[in-house]
Amino acid sequence: MLGLMQQRELLISSFLDYAEAYHPRVEVVSRLRDGTLHRIGWGGIADRARRLAQALQRLGIRRGARVATLAWNTHRHLELFFGVTGSGIVLHTVNPRLFPEQLRYIIDHAENGVVFFDVEFAGLVADLAPHLPTVHTYVALGVRDELPDLALPNLLAYEDLLAAEDGDFAWPMFDENSASSLCYTSGTTGNPKGVLYSHRSTVLHTFSLMAVDTMAISARETLLPCAPLFHVNCWGIPYAAAGTGAKLVLPGSRLDGESLWELLRDEGVTFAAAVPTVWLTLFAWMERQADLNPGALKLRRVLSGGTAVPRVVIDTLRDRFGATLLQAWGMTELSPLGTVGNLLPRHDALDEEARTALRLKQGRTIYGIELRVVDEAGRPLPRDGTSVGLIQARGPWVLSGYFKGDGGQAVDADGWFGTGDVGTLDADGFLTITDRAKDVVKSGGEWISSIELENLAVGHPAVQEAAVIAARHARWQERPLLLVTCKEGRSVTKAELLAFLAPKVAKWWLPDDVICVDAMPHTATGKVQKARLRSEYADWLERG
Length: 544
Ligand code: ADP
What we know:
Elements: H1 13-22, E1 27-31, E2 37-41, H2 42-58, E3 66-70, H3 75-86, E4 90-93, H4 100-109, E5 114-117, H5 122-128, E6 137-140, E7 155-157, H6 158-163, E8 179-185, E9 193-198, H7 199-210, E10 222-225, H8 237-244, E11 247-250, H9 257-266, E12 271-273, H10 276-287, E13 301-304, H11 311-321, E14 324-330, E15 337-340, H12 352-359, E16 364-365, E17 370-374, E18 389-394, E19 417-425, E20 431-436, E21 441-443, E22 446-448, H13 450-457, E23 463-473, E24 477-486, H14 494-501, E25 513-516, H15 530-537
Parallel strand pairs: 1-11, 3-4, 3-5, 4-8, 5-6, 6-7, 10-11, 10-12, 12-13, 13-14, 24-25
Antiparallel strand pairs: 1-2, 8-9, 14-15, 15-16, 17-18, 18-19, 19-20, 21-22, 23-24
Helix pairs in contact: 1-2, 1-8, 2-3, 7-8, 9-10
The structure holds adenosine-5'-diphosphate.
Residues 185-186, 305-308, 327, 329, 331-332, 336, 362, 419-421, 433, 436, 525, 527 line the site of adenosine-5'-diphosphate.
């Protein structure tokens, strides 16, 4: 027997309708290119998103077509999040930090006809344009005066497009399973793979962000997402902001310490989301200032994911800001959230050290995502916090396959997606990632966690960044090799670093060698390119 409840399609436009109806004057603040702040209410965003929808119609863009954006976190990019998806068109947020050949590949693969771009990317767009056969229209995100002098086919100004419309438009209803947005994973090897989200998956993921044990996003919060809008839909925060009527602060391209501090202080930010580097940059800037009082800020919660969070970030946020760090784990294929590190009631009784140990884990499994750990033959392992294996995920916001099938089989017959991460799960659902499957060091058949060694190494006061890779070894097949960069004006020797690590890890985990390098190679998402380090240093221990 079927239930007798209404079958209303779960569409992204419903979030904006809600924000407009009940929170029209709640602000969306954006840092513009010249550093000034732009303010608009959710009512204004909704009006402009509708004008954008009308303009897209006038440009002849049909439902299901993919339009690309190359843009930072500003109100205009936010309007595209709603105006494009609300029209039934697919928003393809392109990471401008990708290498040119990857940019060409994904824009071509997505068959983008229109590219919306921030004026700061004009040079990049001009270089790419001759190699983008599918693109027929370019829209610069600004007013006509700002239009770069570029020889681009059909170059339009975003503000002209909006000004020509009247905003008298109602969001269409369509199947909630329709595609809403497209993100490519950076793909350290092979071509980038497209993950195609649906309205339904996005709405369900957004509901999860509002849940107290996930991110507890509510009308009471002022949100500062430093994660780029082009990175997995900014972890879904823009949608949750609209769906709750939270104030949203968008930092543009300026993530330096001073700009961030100003936003935290002047906009009354209560919740910020950023990768650890952003916090380390802020802390380094703060060290050079006199008379700052981070304790007086309203910042209470900080979400960090994408890479393991160093302890210093957790400690500094707690001790100096009075803020709690929530570590989250996920990936493009998971929309991205799989876990968030909220503690349980019985953890209130623990001392600070024990609580910090829990916060250093990758987070606790959230409702909506099933996680399990399996061995190399795919057999499930116990959730006991010690059995290390491959992490698999399943759920309504986990992908079922890559765009156009390019990227291989994504899930097994039972719908389990192999995340490529190695780690443990415990009975409470806390996840500890020890490695990417491809980065693990296998010494004499035993796994050594490169992430744990790296986290410990960056705890040394002279170390800026650390990477552990598997180096080939005659007797043990692989042994850990530690590469570090040093903070400005600091240096460290191999003996000093090994002495620093020795009391903290099992003896057989100690790296066989330590190399100080001038710079680390990074991927477009800011992660250390271990594949490159491996190709350069895998034979280091054999060189003699
Ligand atoms: P990629 O960087 O591979 O293009 P994503 O941006 O989707 O793709 O990153 C996903 C990966 O980032 C995860 O598979 C995991 O290895 C890593 N990751 C995400 N969150 C964390 C975390 N909190 N701690 C450690 N690693 C993490």
